[in-house]
Each structure stands twice: as C-alpha cells, then as structure tokens.
C-alpha cells in the first residue's frame, strides 16, 4: 500500500517552461488536493478535487492548472513557470464522506531559475 | 489577518521536557482540529485530531481545544530526540473539504 505518491521529487526549471507534477493515490480516496509550502507561509491550498471530473480553486490557484480524469490521479500543471512558483508542492488525499484527515505525499521540490 | 496563527519558533528543549505547542484561530465555525508532524524533507503526517472542544490523549501526546478562546494546544510529555520535527496545526469546517494550516513550529529535542 503506497499511499500518496508524488513524482518527481526534485525539479529545476527555467522561467517560462511548463511541467506537470504527478500525484497518485491507491486508497480509493475521492478528495485530492495540491498545496504549496513556503517558509513563513505554511501550507496553502492551490486546487482540489472531490471526484473524477470535478475540480475547484483553492487559495492560490493562479498559474496552475489541474484535471481529474481518474480517482487515482490528480496532476498539477505549471503553464509558464515563474520564479515565484519556487516552492515545495504537496499532494494530499482523503475520503469525502463526513470529515476525514488528509494523507500527504512526500512532496516535489521545485526550483525555477 | 490569517485564519490560523502559529508561533514558528524555533523551540529547543532538553530530552524529557514537557513541550507545549499552540495555535490561535479567527473563524469560530471551525469544528475539526488536527496536529500534523513533519520531518525534514517529508510530507506532513497526522498526529492527532479532535472534534470541537475538549482534550484527547494518545500516549505521550495530548491535544486540547478551547473554542471559547479560539485556542488549541498540543502537549508532548517526556519528549524524545525522535520528536524533533515541525508541528503543524490545521483546522476545518464541518464539511471538511478545505483545511487551514498554521505555519508550523520547529521543535528540536536535545539528547
């Protein structure tokens, strides 16, 4: 049982490049989300999904795109990378029924030059 | 004003000490309160959670929620070097879809 798996673990991009951060979970969780973690800012919600085909914006969605075609996968796309998007990105998932704690992956460390 | 405020520390204590970590919040509608532990270069892992006000104990850890003061605490008894990590508080409304996190408190337990 792998839980939440994020790839890649590290990535360096140049300004203007695009890339996709992958997130997969094997717990059949309906709810999945993406956060970014910056020093002094804590975890901030970027986008979330309550099921396949359903996504919504969080606190800091600009510059990011998501889609949810399957229950298992929730990729995060950076359309045109900017230095301000240098951060550690975490994917999380949980069951949707009632309230459930979120399970996190180990993050993707992204540097944009 | 941030939804959740947490003192970032860093906090450094000797092994065996009692540690107190705290968060305050502004939204009185929050119902679920969580503490996550995050080791360096790892994702947050759930340590404890409570619903509404009251205390919850799990081994050396005790979580307290005071909704009248909008204040939550995590106590660690007999602290160990393995407790050295960043501790994040988090909370959510009754629907539970969006979580609000504190910035985290960095704790070091010195052997």
Question: What can be said about this structure in brief?
Answer:
With 113 residues, chain A is an all-beta fold. Chain A contains no helices and eleven strands. In chain B, strand 6 and strand 7 form a beta hairpin.
Question: Topology of this structure?
Answer:
The complex is a heterodimer of chains A (113) and B (111).
Chain A: E1 4-7, E2 10-13, E3 19-25, E4 31-38, E5 42-51, E6 54-57, E7 64-66, E8 76-78, E9 87-94, E10 103-104, E11 108-112
Parallel strand pairs in A: 2-11
Antiparallel strand pairs in A: 1-3, 3-8, 4-5, 4-9, 5-6, 7-8, 9-10, 9-11
Chain B: E1 4-6, E2 11-14, E3 19-25, E4 32-38, E5 45-51, E6 54-58, E7 61-66, E8 71-76, E9 85-92, E10 99-101, E11 105-110
The proportion of strand residues of chain A reads over 45%
Compute the number of strand runs of chain A. Answer: 11
The helix-and-strand class of chain B reads mainly beta
- Major β-sheet profile of chain A: 7 strands, mixed
Biggest β-sheet description of chain B = 6 strands, mixed
Shape of chain B: globular
> Helix segment count of chain B?
0
Mean pLDDT of chain B: 92
| Helix and strand run of chain A | EEEEEEEEEEE
Beta-strand portion of chain B reads over 45%
Structure notes:
The complex is a heterodimer of chains A (113) and B (111). Chain A has no helices and eleven strands. Chain A has strands at 4-7, 10-13, 19-25, 31-38, 42-51, 54-57, 64-66, 76-78, 87-94, 103-104, 108-112. In chain A, the strands form two sheets. In chain A, strands 2, 4, 5, 6, 9, 10 and 11 form a seven-stranded mixed beta sheet that branches. A four-stranded antiparallel beta sheet of chain A has the order 1-3-8-7, with no helix packed on it. Chain A is globular, with a radius of gyration of 13 Å. The N and C termini of chain A lie far apart (36 Å). Chain B has 111 residues and is mostly beta strands. The radius of gyration of chain B is 13 Å and the shape is globular. The N and C termini of chain B lie far apart (38 Å). The interface between A and B is medium-sized, with 25 and 28 residues.
